[in-house]
Amino acid sequence: MTKIRRTLMVLLLLAVLRLPIALALSALLPDVSQAPVPFYIVTILQELLMFALPAVLLRPWRADRLSRPQHVLPWFLLAVAAAVLARTALSPVTAWWTGFIGATGVPIPVSVGFFEGVLQVLAFGIVPAIVEEMFFRGALLTALLDSCHRVTAVLLTTLMFAFMHGSLGGLPAHLAISLLLTLLMLRSGCILVPIAVHLLYNLLALGWPVLPGWVAGCCGIVLAGVVIALHIGLPRQEQARLSRRDCLLCAAIFGLMAIPYLM
Length: 263
Hints:
Elements: H1 3-28, H2 36-57, H3 72-101, H4 114-145, H5 150-164, H6 171-188, H7 192-205, H8 213-232, H9 244-262
């Protein structure tokens, strides 16, 4: 079985399991505001089992069309700037979008005590950033790059990451940050760069204010320029296509991922 076939089969299994697991946990676990510590611990374990374990099993995360890491420090500096730009630009977008569709966001409770605060940072910031990047940019993107055209690989990775979250209110922000993370992985060739952006982006959500519209707009314009520059700088490559069976697997994955948005 090819690497892309194995990766898509794993992702199909995750798409099948994610909704029943989420429903079971919501029924069994107490509300996060009433018992935050058990909620954080289970959230961390869920992320590790759903994404970290499959990503480790799908190694190595190599692709012939992926840039080899060189001069990583400038990419980390860009990662910090990109995370701040993304959080500043996308926070008001999410607020407007949730208001437009009438969605209600789940507020992050204020942590009480050091231990609870550490668990909150791990559950909402550090663990998701590491394990989701391991799977989507480490395993999925590298498998797609060796199996289809780069534009298709970027599009599928971006969409699958965003839709797997199952949040209609957060969908625009998830799409935007996923595209940024995917392009950064392509240009840097180092998984630590998208991890750094994702981690800082998540941590800023724990206490980042919604800034004035003109600030967010300026940051959005700069962020769009960064995305365009990252895409333009990619080298040309030969054409390639997914096999028919792999295309059917992708269609099945998207169909399963769409279920939470229709409920």
